[in-house]
Structure formats: C-alpha cells, structure tokens
Design a protein that fits this description.
The protein has nine helices and nine strands. About 10% of the residues are buried. It has about 240 residues and is α+β, with helices and mostly antiparallel strands.
C-alpha cells in the first residue's frame, strides 16, 4: 500500500515538473528565439568587419572536384569515314582536385547593400595519384583547336590546317589535358593568348590562381531574404 502511494506521489511530481517546464518554455521562448536569432545573424550577416564577412571571404568548406575526360576510341574512323560514324568513347578514371576559393578586390557599395568582388581559385591535387592514373592515355578532343576553329567559316582555309594540322584529336596523357601541355597549335597562338598562365595549355593550369570571374551581389544587410542575389557578372 505504501509503495503504491509513493509511486503516485512521484508521478504527480513528474507531471507537475513537466507542466512547469512547458509553462516556463512558453513564457521564455520569445527571449530564447531572439537570442538564437541574434547568434545566427551574427554568423551569417554580410557586413564590413563582421564574422559573416570573414567566413564569406575565405570559406571554411572544402570542395573536392572529380575531373574525367572522354577518350575517343574510334577517332581514326571519325576522321577518315565520310559516313559520319557514331562516336565511341569511354571515361577516364577521375582526377581529384581540391578547390579553394578566395574573394579579392572587395568593394562595398550603395551603403553596404551591394558588394563587388573577384573570385580567386586555387587547384591542388587531392590524395595520392597512382602511376596508373597518371599514365592514362587516350585520344581527346583538342579544345584549343576547337576554339581556334571557330574563327573560320564552315570550310576552313589552308592556314588553319597549316597551324593546327589535320588531326582533330590529340593523343596524349589525360593528366596533361588538365595540368598543361604544349602542342603545335599552342605554339602558334600562345603569343596572342590573354590572361595569366600562358606557358602551356590545360584546363586546371589556365585557371589555377586566377581571378577569372567578377560578381556584384546584394548583401542582404537589411533583408536576409535577398542576400546573395546577383546584380552583375563579368569574366576577365
């Protein structure tokens, strides 16, 4: 009988405690909400000298990108068969690169409601590259040749073939297509290339450490719902 009474008392006390906690939570929730909102706003608010600006300028997140190239298996047939055969290709094994982004040339405009900046990108190999990965070879579309080809009409004149040769594909190591290579086409037009990193040509090589893009965005300093909306964009 006594044990039943003790259990009943404990249950009543527990219910009272829960009710008291709920009532206290309801009464104090507006203050808690404002405190949580203030702490969150402090972290994400994009304004000069703010914590949000520090994490925005040099993002703490790590970005890993996997780059694969398409190895054209029947490239000789494509170049010699006038019947336009279907292209047969396979993907190379992925090359992993770590991408770090930093904002430069930051300008606060319109009473800090907009911000103009450029993006600097740094690519580094991620993880250990095996010999098999580095030795991957194949016939790849020569992007530099494609870019140069657009300057001519539907039927290119002999100058194009004198500079670029007759081979539409470039057989080489896949890693060179990313980290840079020198071809006869590159040697012919390198003096007219713009921007940094002009000693060779490669997707990663050309963009590594460059301020390639310029943005103007809304800071949302007075309205977080519009933070990050793009106002203007331009490439170098």
């Amino acid at each position: 009988m006594r044990s039943i009474l003790v259990r009943a008392i404990w249950k009543i006390l527990l219910v009272c405690f829960l009710f008291a906690f709920v009532i206290l939570f309801v009464l104090k929730w507006p203050d808690c909400q404002r405190w949580v909102h203030g702490k969150a706003l402090e972290k994400i608010r994009l304004a000069p000298m703010s914590l949000g600006n520090t994490s925005w300028t040099i993002p703490p997140a790590t970005t890993i990108r996997a780059y694969r190239l398409f190895d054209i298996k029947n490239y000789m047939t494509i170049m010699t068969d006038m019947k336009n055969p279907l292209m047969e290709f396979r993907e190379t094994e992925p090359f992993l690169f770590k991408l770090a982004i930093k904002k430069n040339n930051v300008e606060w405009l319109d009473n800090n409601t907009t911000i103009h900046y450029s993006v600097e990108r740094f690519f580094t190999r991620h993880g250990e590259y095996s010999k098999a990965l580095l030795d991957q070879q194949g016939a790849f579309i020569d992007i530099l040749r494609v870019m140069f080809r657009t300057k001519y009409g539907s039927v290119a004149d002999s100058v194009f073939y004198m500079l670029g040769g007759n081979n539409a594909f470039n057989y080489s190591k896949a890693i060179d297509k990313l980290e840079g290579y020198i071809s006869p086409m590159f040697a012919a037009i390198s003096s007219r290339m713009q921007g940094p990193n002009r000693d060779k040509y490669g997707f990663i090589y050309r963009y590594n450490g460059t301020n390639g893009f310029n943005y103007t965005i809304l800071t949302g300093i007075n309205d977080l719902t519009i933070k990050g909306q793009m106002v203007d964009f331009a490439s170098e």
